[in-house]
Write a structure and sequence with these properties.
Helices cover 22% and strands 26% of the residues. The protein has 7 helices and 16 strands. The chain binds succinic acid.
Length: 288
C-alpha cells in the first residue's frame, strides 16, 4: 500500500519484510518542515512504528525542534542522565570527565528489552534517538514489533491473557538491571503503576503487547507465576522474526513508537569504544 500522505519528494523504504520499520528518504530534519512533511512522517510512524533518518546533521536544538512536532517532551525522572542546559535530552554516554571511555555501561537498563517510561501513568509515545558517537563494534539498538508479535500469538493464548494488567515499577527494574537503585525522590515521582498487558494503539486501533523490563508482576497472579508468564511472552515477542537490529552509522536519527515496540541496546567494549547517544521522549497517554 502506498504512503498516500507522502509529499512528492519524500520516500519510504522498508527496513524489514513486514510493515515494521521504514527509512524515510529525502527529508532534511535540520530545516523547518512543512505541515505536509510532518503529517507524512506522522503517518509513516503510525504505520511502521519505527523510522530511520540517515544523513541528518542535527544540532541539539534541531533535534528538540523536530521532536516537538510529535507532542510535549518529557523530562525523565532519572535526572542524572539529563543535560542541565537541555533537560529534554537524555544523554547516554560512556565518556568520563577526563574525556576517555569509562569502562562501564552508563545505563544498564537500556541493555534489556523495554519501552520508555512505562513506569509512569502516561508513558512515552515516541522516542527520538540520535547517534553522536558510534561504537565500531557492538552498541547496536534492536527493536521488536509488539503488534506483529501479538498478531502471531495463537488465539487461545490471546483469549487467556487479553485482559491481564501488569504493574510497571521503576524501583524494581533498576534493581533487576543492576543499575544504581532509584532514589527516594525518584520512587516518589514514579510509584508502581498498572497498565494493560495488551494495549490498543490510539491511532490505528491495532493491538500489541505492552511489557518489557519495567513490567514487574501481573495483577491478581502469584508473583512467580506472573513473572514466568511475562518471561515467556517476552521470549515469544522478541524472536528474530519480530526484530529489526540497527547498526548505527554517523548522523542518524531513529524514532520509534513506544506504544507498539520494545527496544534494547547491545553491549560494546565500554573501556575502549566511545559511544554517545541522546534521546528526546514525547509524552504519551494513559494506555488502554
Ligand atoms: C534507549 O534505550 O533509549 C537507548 C538505546 C541505545 O542506547 O541504543
Amino acid at each position: 500500500m502506498p504512503d498516500t500522505a507522502m509529499p512528492a519528494e519524500m520516500r519510504v523504504r522498508p527496513l524489514t519484510d513486514s510493515d515494521f520499520g521504514a527509512e524515510i528518504l529525502a527529508v532534511d530534519l535540520a530545516q523547518p518542515l512543512s505541515t505536509a512533511q510532518v503529517d507524512a512522517v506522522r503517518a509513516a510512524f503510525d504505520r511502521h512504528r519505527l523510522l530511520l533518518f540517515r544523513n541528518q546533521h542535527l544540532t541539539r536544538d534541531a533535534h528538540i525542534a523536530f521532536s516537538r512536532h510529535f507532542g510535549e517532551l518529557e523530562h525523565h525522572v532519572l535526572s542524572q542522565y539529563l543535560d542541565p542546559k537541555y533537560p529534554e535530552l537524555y544523554v547516554i554516554s560512556n565518556i568520563g570527565p577526563d574525556g576517555k571511555p569509562r569502562g562501564e555501561h552508563p545505563d544498564k537498563g537500556t541493555l534489556w528489552w523495554h519501552t520508555d517510561t512505562s513506569f509512569t501513568r502516561t508513558p512515552s509515545l515516541a522516542t527520538l534517538l540520535r547517534g553522536i558517537e558510534i561504537a565500531a563494534d557492538g552498541g547496536q539498538t534492536w527493536f521488536a514489533d509488539m503488534q506483529g508479535a501479538w498478531d502471531a500469538l495463537p488465539a487461545a493464548t490471546k483469549a487467556r491473557i487479553a485482559d491481564l494488567r501488569v504493574v510497571h515499577d521503576l524501583a524494581a527494574s533498576r534493581l533487576r538491571s543492576g543499575d544504581l537503585p532509584a532514589t527516594e525522590e525518584q520512587r516518589r515521582r514514579a510509584p508502581p503503576i498498572a497498565h494493560p498487558l495488551v494495549r490498543t494503539h490510539p491511532v490505528t486501533g491495532r493491538k500489541g503487547f505492552y511489557m518489557g523490563l519495567h513490567a514487574d508482576h501481573v495483577v491478581g497472579m502469584p508473583y512467580d507465576e506472573g513473572r514466568a508468564l511475562l518471561d515467556e511472552l517476552l521470549a515469544f515477542a522478541t524472536q528474530d522474526r519480530f526484530v529489526y537490529k540497527h547498526t548505527w552509522s554517523a548522523d542518524e536519527l531513529v524514532m520509534w513508537d513506544n506504544r507498539a515496540t520494545l527496544h534494547r541496546a547491545t553491549s560494546y567494549d565500554t573501556g575502549r569504544e566511545r559511544r554517545v547517544v541522546e534521546r528526546t521522549v514525547v509524552r504519551g497517554e494513559v494506555p488502554v
